[in-house]
Amino acid sequence: MTRDSDGTARRRFVQLLGASTAAGTGVSTTAAAAGASARTAQTDDGSAADGTDSGLVTVESNANFETTVSRVEAVLEASGVALLTTVDHAANAASVEQSLPPTTLFLFGNPAAGTPLMQAERSVAIDLPQKLLVWEDGGDVFLTYNDPQYLAARHGLDAADEQLAMVGEALQQLVAAIAGGE
């Protein structure tokens, strides 16, 4: 069901989102594989242990699924970031008589931060607004988002390093606040 509600430049984007007031980091990364139970460890630069780059950053939450989902909305609101929509993939699966562990996608952003990136390279619009996936695997809850550095490389955003770095920092701060409940 749907409910309305690479580098330095990315970090600036996240800061522009209002995330600079969110709690600190301490973020660990893993790559979410096609199956929720399969995760590939990533190095600090975001590349997977097998040498590939998934472009995903995954952080484990210290809370159950419902609490983590409620934190997303609260942290985004407190940070002044607009929550554009929420997609409950598990509910969608149930609507066609299939099962899926709890899996909810949040789309959020700030046009003041995203527009300059789209002006620099229009194709980045396919990856904006920002997305945050909250998912459960065997009782553990994870948050996954696109690494801004990966998106920069994907879209050739060479001139937006400072802004992307800010976006990356802001995303890390948002996710750390949600995962840790800070």
Helical content (DSSP H or I, runs of 4+): 25-40%
> Could you name the CATH homologous superfamily?
TT1751-like domain
CATH class: Alpha Beta
CATH topology, anyone?
TATA-Binding Protein
Number of strands: 8
Classify the secondary structure makeup into a structural class.
alpha+beta
Rg, Cα atoms, Å: 15 Å
How much β-strand is present in the residues? 15-25%
- Regions with little confidence, pLDDT below 50 for 5+ residues: 1-51
Number of domains: 1
Describe the strand arrangement of the main beta sheet, using strand numbers.
1-5-6-7-8-4
Instruction: Give the count of helical stretches.
Output: 6
Q: What's the overall geometry?
A: globular
Helix/strand order: EHEEEHEHEHEEHH
The CATH architecture: 2-Layer Sandwich
Q: For the report, how would you describe the main beta sheet?
A: 6 strands, antiparallel
- How many angstroms does the end-to-end distance come to? 29 Å
Overall pLDDT confidence: 77
InterPro entries: DUF302, TAT_signal, TT1751-like_sf
Domain DUF302: 87-148
Pfam family, one: DUF302
